[in-house]
Amino acid sequence: MAPPRTRSADPVEEASRWVIRQSGQRLDDAEHAAFEAWYRADAQHAAAYDRLSRLWRRMGEIDRGKLAKRPARKLRATAMLALLTAAFAGWFGSTNPTQQADYLAGSNVLPVTLPDGSTVVLDAHSALAVDYAGGRRQVRLLAGRAQFEPTPRQEGMAPFSVFTRDASATALGTRFTVDVQDGGTRVAVQSHQVAVRCLPCADDQGMTLSAGEAVEVSKAGVKHHAEAGTASPGWTRGLLSFDDVPLPAAVQALARYSGKHIVVMGDAARAQRVSGTANVADTRRALELLLAQTPVQVTDLPGLLLLR
């Protein structure tokens, strides 16, 4: 028998019941079919279940054996709510997301090959968790940004999906980037199509993007950008391009790839504008080239680059 459903049919509550149910005993064929149908019916179901399942495996301090022996329908609501609260705090909460990461980029761009041959380019200071258990092909971008190029889906193969706190992005044979920002998640498609859904939206907003399109997803909904370009972002190749931008803005972009703090000193330096393409592998050299035709000098100190 499948875990009982409440009238609210909240994906997280349903997911928690499935997690607890499966921790106690092996599902029979009918139960397994019911679970698979529920799991695949909605990206929110999959996201909620995977979050809780992963947390459940890590909660060694909880006596799961005793909890699982009690039928799911008899679990007290307070115990269930406690589990849900812990799950959200542990997976996408205020703790350091890098603790959950399978791949973590430092101050350099990190190329990654996943178990199915799909490729990912992680930008500096980005974190990625991977879940390929049970035939799934799911990853979570916990921080930063990444470009994904999934292996084409074959018959019987699960779809490739990327999850963030705000959105799910399911590849339809494609190349796309996902950027976790303070106010939400940006998804941009460079090739083919991606199905994007807003996870926290009450009205289940979503759309399918084609090459050159992008969206920003947040609790406020899905904001569509029709013109995003089809070329891969320069950062995936270790390059940043600037076209007459203020020096502080260029420094902010380059600082992501530097092991040193970069400080722009003086009004004259801060008013300087720069253009050019910078190789992020050597931040000092990149700044020197950008500033070659300006009076601004680069001073290299231990742990610090001064521009003045």
Task: Summarize, please.
By secondary structure, the protein is of the alpha+beta class. 28% of the residues lie in helices and 32% in strands. α1 (11-24) crosses α5, α2 (29-41) packs across α3 (43-58) and α3 crosses α5.
Explain what you see.
It is elongated and about 75 Å long. It starts with 10 loop residues before the first helix and ends with a strand. Residues 1-8, 58-78 and 83-94 have low confidence and may be disordered. The chain has helices at 11-24, 29-41, 43-58, 64-69, 77-92, 247-255, 267-270, 283-290; strands spanning 103-104, 110-113, 119-122, 127-131, 137-143, 145-149, 160-163, 167-171, 175-181, 184-191, 193-198, 206-210, 214-218, 221-225, 239-246, 261-264, 273-279, 298-301, 304-307. It has 8 helices and 19 strands. The protein has 308 residues and is α+β, with helices and mostly antiparallel strands. The chain has 3 domains: 11-92, no CATH class; 97-225, Jelly Rolls; 238-307, 3-Layer(bab) Sandwich (Phage tail protein beta-alpha-beta fold), CATH 3.55.50.
Radius of gyration: 23 Å
Oligomer: single chain
How would you write the strand order of the largest sheet?
A: 1-4-5-7-8-11-12
Beta-strand proportion: 25-35%
What is the name of the CATH topology of the largest domain? Jelly Rolls
> What level of helicity do the residues show?
25-40%
Count of discrete domains: 3
Give start-end ranges of low-pLDDT stretches. 1-8, 58-78, 83-94
Q: Structural class, please?
A: alpha+beta
Amino-to-carboxy terminus distance = 71 Å
Cα shape: elongated
CATH-scheme architecture of the largest domain: Sandwich
Secondary-structure element order, as H and E? HHHHHEEEEEEEEEEEEEEEHEHEHEE
